[in-house]
Amino acid sequence: MRDIVSCLSENAVNVSPSSLIPCSTTNPCIITPSSSSIIVAPSTQNSTSTIYTLKHLLITVTWCNQGLTITFNHQDPPPFRLNTNSRFFPKKKGSKTLQIQSSNLEILWDLSNAKYQTGPEPLQAFYLLIILDSELGLALGDNADEAVSKRFGSNFKASYPLARMVSKREHCSGTTLYTTKARFCDTGTCHDVAIRCSVEREGEGSSLKSPILSVCIDKKTVTRVKRLQWNFRGNQTIFVDGLLVDLMWDVHDWFFSSNPSCGGYAVFMFRTRSGMDSRLWLEEKGVHKDKERVEFSLLIYACKTS
């Protein structure tokens, strides 16, 4: 990503207040540089991958096509795969034991009544537990409390999950409107994140139109980039839950894709950094960091197919 830095001007980095123009996803527009706006629906989420740290392990939980894959320390092939859409013997509930780097792991899951919307990740009526050396390491799902009580007893009061989320990667396809949810720190709240591109007039009374990128958190615009066809790469710094969050965008292929039928991928990244550190995360290579501080990043790949 070093080439992105070279595209930025000296004033490309600034802190935007979190309470600017309200953002509405009503009548969202797909950007087509040579055509007028078209009302469209939000993009469809195709897959999500979340990385957690747990002692000496990096745990990657991936949901794709309502299936589940879990890897430890980036093992290839993944030691755990679950295809809930299999026509023959879909194992939507069960347990599996593994041994990773002299540690005993147990995975327990129940997706038999899981509720989905448009994405691959279940939203309700499921649980996923990962137990490391007889200790609860990760608990996901709204039914996790009940599953933990059955496994460890009703008096179990450990402050779980012990694993900490460090990054999340999402792939989506469809239009240039994308919505998701993100928690930028362990003690923060879950925020609604919306990325929207629309074609708007360049000024009052002007007949000229240009694409504009709006990034909203909890329906408040935190970043607004005009003339996006010229500012297709860049970054800004925003405040979320009292944290500095670097936001990077690269929508070059939405305008200049070598394959017009595909529409190209855009990339958006949110990454937290210490309030005492004024450096861009893109410039932090080789800089000593506080090992106790866990940063979080959200990476979104958005493919425009319509």
Key structural traits:
mainly beta; 2 domains; DUF868_pln; disordered N terminus; four-stranded antiparallel sheet; 44% strand; 6% helix; 306 residues; ten-stranded mixed sheet
Give the % helix.
under 10%
Number of helices: 3
Percent of residues in β-strands: 35-45%
Task: Tell me the structural class.
Answer: mainly beta
Uncertain parts: 1-38, 281-291
According to DSSP, the number of beta strands is: 18
Instruction: Return the domain count.
Output: 2
Radius of gyration: 21 Å
Largest sheet: 10 strands, mixed
Question: Ends: how far apart?
Answer: 27 Å
Topology pattern, helix = H, strand = E: HEEEEEEEEEHEEEEEEEHEE
Strand order of the largest sheet: 1-15-16-17-18-10-2-3-4-5
Shape descriptor reads elongated
Task: Give the integer mean of the pLDDT values.
Answer: 79
Please tell me about this protein's structure.
The chain is 6% helix and 44% strand. The two termini are 27 Å apart. The chain is elongated. A hairpin with a 7-residue loop joins strand 12 (191-201) and strand 13 (209-217). It folds into 2 domains: 2-43 and 175-304, no CATH class; 47-166, no CATH class. It has 3 helices and 18 strands. The strands form 3 sheets. The chain has a 10-stranded mixed sheet with strand order 1-15-16-17-18-10-2-3-4-5. The protein has a 4-stranded antiparallel sheet with strand order 6-7-8-9, with helices on one face. Strands 11-12-13-14 form a 4-stranded antiparallel sheet, with no helix packed on it. It has helices spanning 2-5, 144-152, 252-256; strands spanning 15-16, 44-54, 57-64, 67-72, 80-82, 93-100, 103-110, 127-132, 135-140, 164-174, 177-182, 191-201, 209-217, 220-225, 233-240, 243-250, 265-273, 297-304. It is mainly β.
